[in-house]
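Figure 2 data, in text form.
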Amino acid sequence: MSTSVSLYRSARLPLAALLIAAAMPWFLSEYTQSLLVNILIYAIFALSLELLVGTTGLVSLGHAAFSGVAAYVTALLMEVTGPGDMLLVLPAAMLGAGAYALFVGALSLRTRGVYFIMVTLAFAQMAFFIFHDTAIGGGSDGMYLSSRPSLALAGKVLIDLESPQQFYFFTLACLAVTYALLAVLLRSRFGRALAGIRLNEQRMRAVGFPTYGYKLAAFVIAGMLAGLAGFLMAARTGVVNPELLSWHESGAVLLMLILGGLGSLRGAVIGAAAFILLKEFYSSEAVFGPFALHWQMSLGVTMILCVALLPHGLIGLRFPLKLRSGLRAKQGVTHG
């Protein structure tokens, strides 16, 4: 099969989903559009963690720290500069998250297995308490954004995130770029090296790959993409608080990957959508009455059933035969 045919087959479903999503604002209410924006943001967040967990085999419980740091950078810059210039705020938020990921990754990647999980969790908790217990970010109350960033050139506003429709299309474009970037990256030599590290790091090191450098690069890229999600979270809600950095948030995005299916970009997006919709459904008082307050219990039972009945996640419903034949294991990594 030629490369162009393979690329076409891999891209046609994501492109179709992108076109459908682009048409949605004309059919959705204000509430459902806001819910869809939330799904798009968490899909970017889940894709960033997929690069670590599904591709490289690095299970991190501190991933929310990177999105939280980016959200605080966004709020702090908006407070200093007034009406935010997106050309300044967005790169600063992503670079801030990337710099923190470089620091955390440089130290935590010297461990492995359960120790790596605990070290990433410890760094995230440290970041949580820095923002929670000091006046840097307003303490436990957090910070409010007086306005949302905009992009203007030659005095003309091209993107204004105050507009719900423009915010929706900007978030959708960010998701499309993130997905395409990761799809290309996973097909590159770098992506195949990460897949090799996940399968057998010792063998990769024996054949000459500097595995520590590859893992650190993946860690920083994942941190910057999580920073993009953090920027969008801050701009969407207009408020940031320490809960954005909590281990609950890291656990939630990890559950999204498990729900959608590890090792697949599509699985990360599907998992994010399913998780947000299930959370919205179980917390609906119109459906569950007072029991809606205990939506975590309903969601937990659902997750247990999904893990027991769908070991490959929701994406396994689409490709059961391929998964059973072990095709993904032979390829080392899935694309899209």
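Caption note: The chain has a mean pLDDT of 88.
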